[in-house]
Amino acid sequence: xxxxxxxxxxxxxxxxxxxxxxxxxxxxxxxxxxxxxxxxxxxxxxxxxxxxxxxxxxxxxxxxxxxxxxxxxxxxxxxxxxxxxxxxxxxxxxxxxxxxxxxxxxxxxxxxxxxxxxxxxxxxxx
Length: 126
Known about the structure:
69% helix; mainly alpha; elongated
């Protein structure tokens, strides 16, 4: 597979269409009247990016664990990992990078955010 197609398939495996759910991190500053506070907006934006990364890590973990079943499923068999567009090694490496990066970033901002992000991933993993 050509590198461009492999990168495209890996990006699709991150399920960016699901990232919209992470916009919920802005709810607090909207209802708090601080949407236009630059510091709060920046914190929420970084939290949004971190949650996009950790949710993508959980999707990759799910795809790796469910690989044999997904290959037999009428719709899921077309996902990048199940269809063979990306390998388990690539998916596992990206999972590791996203997991380590998002938890490290969250902990470097606030311990509470790090705990929340880690708990989010563990909840999805279990």
